[in-house]
Amino acid sequence: MQDLIQIRAVVEDNYNIKDITIHSRQRDYTDARKVYSYIARRCTRYTSNQIGKIINRTHASILICHNRANELMERDENFRMSIRYCMHLCVNILNKESTTYKESLDLIWSNLSNLQQEDILSMANDMTAKNNGLKKEIRYV
Fold first, then answer.
1. Would the pTM of this model clear 0.85, i.e. be above it?
2. Which residues does 8 contact at the CB level (< 8 Å), separation at least 6?
3. Which residues in the chain show pLDDT less than 70?
């Protein structure tokens, strides 16, 4: 549920809303609920019921918000830009692959022999050197 709270905070911050749970039909509130629903359904594995509980809505309201967000993304450029911006922020916050990978490596690192640890470090250094070489070759416009 912490993920949903973080998504809610990003959306509220983007729309300058203090509380997305307020029952209001103002455009900022309705758009914020649509963005929250869309991102929560796309970026998490929570059910619509769980997503709705965070903003005091039912699962049906979440489904409707998600569908309306899809419709608006096709027609409204400003809404599309807003949802992409929020999605970008949320994905950066919710990205757990690197931390999970690091945690997994930390677990097995102590079980590796010194030779295996040295091999892994040398491969990582080689990859870093190649990456830096590629960065120098690529000229950004």
1. no
2. 20, 36, 54, 55
3. 96-107, 131-141
